[in-house]
Amino acid sequence: MQHLEAVKTRYGFAQGAGYVDTVLPQVQFFWSTETVPRAPLIYNAGIVLILQGHKIGYLGEHVFEYNPDHYLVVSLPTPFDCATFATETDPMLGLFINIDAADLRALAPLVAAETGRDKVASLGLSPAPADADLKGAVDRLLKALCSEAESQALGQGIVREILFHALKGPHGGALQALAQSDSHYDRVARSITRIRESYAENLNVDALAETAGMSAPVFYRAFKSITGSSPLQYLKATRLSRAQGLLLEGKIGVAEAARRVGYENAAHFSREFKKHFQVSPKEAQGAGYHPIDL
Hints:
Helices cover 49% and strands 21% of the residues. The chain is of the alpha+beta class and 294 residues long. It folds into 2 domains: 4-177, Sandwich (Jelly Rolls), CATH 2.60.120; 184-285, Arc Repressor Mutant, subunit A, CATH 1.10.10.60. The strands form 2 sheets. It has a 6-stranded antiparallel β-sheet, covered by helices on one side. It has a 4-stranded antiparallel β-sheet with strand order 3-8-5-6. A hairpin with a 5-residue loop joins strand 1 (17-21) and strand 2. The mean pLDDT is 89.
């Protein structure tokens, strides 16, 4: 991309891995200068654009690559596994754009009217090929992000343009479904919000279905169709991901981390943690790396 080097100079990405906010509150850069083996990750609803390097995602039986030619549409926060490929001389650099609900509701009907039909909704997390229009908008966004004045004057409009192109893309149906109030997407999104805000509580399928305003069987099928996992699998992945972050901070022990994320039995927590991450909680405390959760 034409303005990629200017972005690197402006933001000065350090060695290791991390993310940095930009002048635009819904836009963040993330990077890594080292290869990271397959590990659990959760993105918030948004558009993930890889500017350099590549990642491989694993969602159930789905395996996909996202790179400068393939962006990721995340219509709902979805736990999945991800491997990052990067080195100090060839780092991975990406851009994350949070989806603004008001912009989505304004743009979705325009796309539906232009295509003459609503697109079929896909999983809550799907890769899509980046066409020339989207790549051009991303490059102009990079240029704007190198200047506070350009960011303030032009940034929001360019972000809306990128969202518009994503809506027109092959997985725009998931975004269109999210824009529709009281759809299955909207109802499942409510339950996901409850999980992410109250994961330490004693949640079950019936309670989450009540939050979604659906019967338990219908909710279970809708949740699995949209996210690729069952509600309780999602809850477990969220709890374990939060526990991993607590352990890597190094301020509390395993038993306390287990308690804070909703496990009453530390031994049960340790077994599930090792099964999920392939390392024990004690080993994770010394790992020194935590996947970025945007």
